[in-house]
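Hello K.,

You asked for the raw outputs rather than the summary table, so here they are, unedited. I folded two proteins back to back in the same session to keep the settings identical. This is the first:
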Amino acid sequence: MSRQTAFITTTDIELAASYMEQTGRTPAVFREPGNALVSIEMVNDQITQQVMMSFAIGDLMVNARRFSACRAYLYRTIKAVK
């Protein structure tokens, strides 16, 4: 049996924007030392898992305007991470 972690980490901006649009929560954005990619960290709870599963199977319906705003916010935030 695997232990569930408190956070889920991804590099997928569209997944993170979907998470933001569905939950209204802002994920943490950071770069680990020695890694070229920026990581996006979200709280691992039932809502997050439902969003991720719906996103993965292509069944997630999002508000296009809010999704676009969330994605733009993430791009700006990622660009600012050193």
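The second followed immediately with the same parameters:
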Amino acid sequence: MQSLLLRNLKFTIPTALVFLALGYIISIPMSFYLDAYAAKWQFNLDHSGLRIETERLDTLRKFQTTVALGSAILGVVVAQTTFAMCIFVEKDDYKSEG
């Protein structure tokens, strides 16, 4: 039987990465609500002749990073909760068999 730590890591790391990717994907449309001008500039939608302040881009990137990392943290919480519940179920099954 694999160690508990290894099983936990095999479950938590992929879950956190999936939530991180989902968080970044969600942060892209949210960026247009935060600052549509900076989002258009960042994603090269149409910036011919436009100038933008780097502070606006930095604020936009900070927002995207916060949303993505918050989602990753949520993924870790979900994975840990699910893992703990699976361990308790396995423990109860083991007791009832033995």
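The CA atoms of residues 30 and 90 lie 41 Å apart.

Happy to rerun anything if the numbers look odd on your end.

Regards,
P.
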